[in-house]
Structures are given as structure tokens and as C-alpha cells.
């Protein structure tokens, strides 16, 4: 087994203070709702309030009478293109009179008023007349195509993998298993709701402030909606209180609504969503229904066939790209020669799901990992051993036939959880507990996953990042990147990289809020790509600056010096020359040396055949293995996680504390998905539209023991070997919990969330 090695550095890999901690604790940090401008109006949305129908009339007369209302804008007031969507532009910005409304949260009008309360009140007085149509509310109904959400068919988007001959092997095999799984919605539940302010600016365009992951998406969307060149739209990210994918494409829509008010009133316009509007109208994790068939030969997986159906809701939004990840991850972290996967996205008259930590993969990882577990149980193979037998390892080919030779830590992560959980002993203890308890039952579950880092073959054209680094004459360093900090710790990692490269102290380095005026389009801050992409861009810029400073250093000792080393704010050579970084910066300034550089990193080119789904799907993969122990109350059906052991191959932990934070947060969010979070809809209206009815885990549900192992199997193209951790922190969780509950109750869990009602239903079912 390859033991993982990573180098030692002065800053990278060490313990540091989080650079944005103080301001976020003392209240100085300004989030979307904390900024305001002179003469600013506040906006509220008028939404359809019905799942499917024809918009017959919009009556604003009564609302306009309300004191403090400054204007109400409809499709007629959109100066540019009244159309939104990152991939397929199938979503109206504001629904046009006579057109269809396709979900409860479709936006019809924007009300602007002197304050938020007045705007929200007035929105309730805008009267819509909608001729209701029968809605499509499930994947099954959508597939019938009896009612169409758009034209032609509801089954609009599909992707596939054909590797080897899965059908042939399944036909011939004597040992075939089948399974059907369903994963429900999950709401991102970021603390800070959506919010944007659009301000007419000095350049006769608009400056946009707000909570977001992707400033360049927002810039493009407003440019289209207002019909202005991108050069007239400047986007600055405010501090962002969580996103988890929910602020990938959504802020483009939020900003579009506010920009229509700002454009028409020629005044700053702010919109801050209420939690209810946020949950009713914005993206979630996709519901996915999947069907699996697996052929075994001994302990070896010979073939996997998958059909997975995603509910795209009323508009495609990001679904076509989310689906690429569903496709690539559906057969799991295993080497399988024969793979046939079909993924389909169907339209329904419901809220359009989109990006959420894992991006279409947790649903199918839950399914494949449940399937493998079920097979192990039926064949009497230890669930850990079946994974050891089939795992990807250096030299394996993934389900898309991608030969992976480097940075494949999967066998190591499995070994780590085997060791940390004391696997065999834990199993025995659990079985012993169950033999003496009948009202409570315990179970142990394992999962093993892989994650394609960055945008992959489907999104290569977006996979680049810029940076801008400036050194002032006092030695202070300004770093600007195109990636956003949303709580995940990007600023700290970037400051560490700059500190490592320049040898300047961390406290002399500032990483600014992203601003499209300073750094060119750097792609989206998604797909666990920021450390690699913004990190490499910063490293690149810093390398050039350091070369210049080295030259100034050597010139100042008129040829009597060696190439200096830069450490902790001091620059020195081997001949006893030493100067502070700050003095050297000042010397460079006085010598008229250019002390700003841009950095750039673009993705290594991937070769992929979209027709067959064969090729290099992603630049590299992160790996994780996880063991959990749960206890189920057999009377109430409720489950709690007692212990968890999780191991993650991150390539290199640049900021180990940050990596641990991601893994802890991802675990809790994954546990919420698996056990507690249950979005309730009736006729396309979400009933659980606040946190009194949509239940997310609290500190009380966090297991006492959450043991984390960081595995470092370096990725040669990553900064210092780093890969991504943002999403893989969540991805193994639903599967390991589902497998543990299955063992506890002696029935196979086939859906998430594993609510108490569902557990009781399974317990009461006849033994299968
Ligand atoms: Mo993330 S789910 O790739 O925004």
C-alpha cells in the first residue's frame, strides 16, 4: 500500500489564525443586509403562488397606492433580455402576461419601496389572475409526458456511460442483485439568506454588492437583463454567510430582479430575501430516483447498470451540469470493467433544484453504497472487505475508463477507518449490544467514495482562475482572487499560500473581497476547486514578484550575495546579508520596480467522449471512507449517530484546521440530509419553508466521537499537492448512516431522509 508523503513547509500545513475570524466575531464584517446607500429602495418579489397556469392579468393599482411604494416592475420594464439560466435559458426573469407560470415561486413582479416592510406588504397587494393548469408533481408523472412543463417533452436532458458490456455480463451472470433508491430534496440552509444591492455608479453603469459564490455569473446575468456591456457591470462580493451551492446560480437571478428596479428608478436598489421566499423560490439538492443492477463474481463487482432520474423542477438551471457529476459518481469508487449508466433530468412544476455540496453525487453514492452493502450482506462478505477488494487504487480505471496513476489515496482511507474504528471489534460490540437490548438497536455502517475535483470534462471552458498580487512600499501585500470566501476558509488558505511563496508574514497580507474590476473571469467558486485554481494563480503571481525582489536584493549588495531565502518577513542569503521584507519592498519601490503581478491557472486539458461517457472526467479525484455507529429507538423510529470515523485523501492539507472544519461541517450537513431534513410539498408549494418545520441538526445531534484522519496523497498539479475537500466532506455521510440503520433494524434502507416514520414502516414490514 502506498504510504503517503508530503513535504514540510514554513507556513503550509501549519496551524494559523483564521484571517477573517476577528471581524466575523466582533460584528465588523458586513454581510449583504449590512450595507446601504443614499436614496436606496428596498425590493420584494411578487411570486406566482400556483404551480402551473397561464398568467392572465397583473393588477398593481392597489399596491401602488400604499404609502412609500416607489415603483412596481413587470416583464415590460426589463430593458434587455427577459430570460435567465446558466446552461439552458428556459427561465423567464419576470413572467410575461399571457405566458405560463411553471412553479409556485415563479417571479412576476418586483416591488420597490422606501423600506423592506413596505415592499413586502405591497407585494401582497399585487393581484394576479392565473388560469390554473394541472401540474406535474413527480418524476413518474413527468415521464408520462401527459402534461408538458415546456415544449416537446419533460424528459429533456440525458447523459450516459457505456464501458465494456454491462448488459451482456448481467444477462450471463448467475449472481445479479437489484435495488431501487430514492433521495429527497435538501435545502442548503445557509445562515444568511439571498441578498443583493445594485447601485448606479460613477462609470454610468452599475456596481453590484451581495452574498454570492460566483461574481462573474452575476455580472453576465445583469449584463443580459439590462442589455448593457459587461464593462458597465462591476460585481463586488460582500461577506457571505454560507452558500453550499445555493449561491452558485441563484444570486444571478436575485441580482437581476434588483437591477430592474435600480435601472428603472435610477436609484440604488436592495433586495434581501425573507427565509420563506428563499426556501420557496431558490434551488435545493435534486430529488433522485435510481435503479441499480449489479453482477458479482465471488467478491468482485463485474458489472453495474444504473438508471437515475433527477427532478429538475420547472427550469433546467444547473441540472445538465449537476447531472454530469451524477453520471460519473453513480458506480462509486470502484474498479468495474462493465458499466452502463443513464441519467435523465425531467421537468416538473416544482422549485428548480441546482447546486448543493456534492452536486448530484450524494444521491447516487447513497444508492451504490447501499447496493454494495446489501450485496455483501446477502453473500456473507464483510462490508469493509468487499470495498477493499473492489476499490480504486493507483493504476485503476474509473467508471469512465480514466486511468488514475497518481494521488489515489482510496486504499489508504479504507485502511485508516478500519484502524480508527477498530472495525471488527466495533461490529462485535454492536452485535453484543443488540443481543441484550430490544427497545434500542445499534448498527455499524461503512461507505467509501470518490469525488472528481473541479468542473471536469463538462465544464472545462470555465475552469481557469486569475489572481492579482500587489506589494506596497511598506511591505504590506494585497491579494485579489476571483474565488469567493463563503465561510469555507478560502481567504486563509490563499493568505497562507501568499505567505509561503513571498516569505512575508501572514499579518501583512490581506486577501480582498472579490471584485470583477480587478480580477478577470475566474470561473465559479464551486466544485471544491478554489484551493487548486485560485491557489495556483496566486502562487504563480507571487513567484514572479519574489524573483523581482530577489533581483533587487542581490543588486543592493552589488553582486556580493547569493539568491536569498524569504521567511517570516526576513530576506537573507548565505553570506550574512539580511534585510526585512518591508525594507526590501521599499528599496524596490524606490528603484521603480513594478510590484504588482497577475497570476493565472488554467485546467489541464481533459479528453472525454460525451457520446460514450468515456475518458478523463475530472483532473483528479479526492477519496473518503467512513464508518459510523448509530442507535435506533425501536419504539419511536428515531436515530442518532453515536460514533463516526472518517478518513479523507485531500492531497495536501494546506490549512489542516480548515480541512478538519470542512470535514466536521460536511459530516453534520450530511447527517441532516440522511436523518432529519424533510422538505414537505403540497401541490408544488413548500410547507416547510422555515426552520421551525424544516429541521436541521443542532449541536445536540453531533456525535461525541467524530474521529478524523487526513490522508495526503499529493496531486502533482495542485498547490503543494492539494486537492479539494469542500464537497467530499459531506458525500460519504448519507450512505454510511443508511447502512448503519439498515444493520440496526435488519431491513434495507432505500430512501433518505431516514425519518422516524420511514424507520417504523420498515420495522413493521415483513422480513425480506
Ligand atoms: Mo458547489 S455544489 O459545486 O456550488
The named CATH superfamily of the largest domain: Aldehyde oxidase/xanthine dehydrogenase, molybdopterin binding domain
Largest sheet: 7 strands, mixed
Beta-sheet strand percentage? 25-35%
Helix content: 25-40%
Give the helix tally: 19
Radius of gyration equals 27 Å
Structural class: alpha+beta
Bound chemical compounds: dioxothiomolybdenum(VI) ion
Tell me what the structure shows.
It is a single chain. The protein folds into three domains: 6-29 and 464-602, Aldehyde oxidase/xanthine dehydrogenase, molybdopterin binding domain (Aldehyde Oxidoreductase, domain 4, 2-Layer Sandwich); 36-134 and 194-281, Aldehyde oxidase/xanthine dehydrogenase, a/b hammerhead (Aldehyde Oxidoreductase, domain 3); 403-457 and 616-767, Aldehyde oxidase/xanthine dehydrogenase, molybdopterin binding domain (Aldehyde Oxidoreductase, domain 4, 2-Layer Sandwich), CATH 3.30.365. The strands form ten sheets. Strands 3-7-1-14-11-12-13 form a seven-stranded mixed β-sheet. Helix 10 packs parallel to helix 18 and helix 15 (530-556) crosses helix 16. With 768 residues, the chain is an alpha+beta fold. 29% of the residues lie in helices and 26% in strands. The structure holds dioxothiomolybdenum(VI) ion (MOS). Residues 213, 245, 248, 355-357, 359, 526-527 line the site of dioxothiomolybdenum(VI) ion. Dioxothiomolybdenum(VI) ion binds at residues 213, 245, 248, 355-357, 359, 526-527.
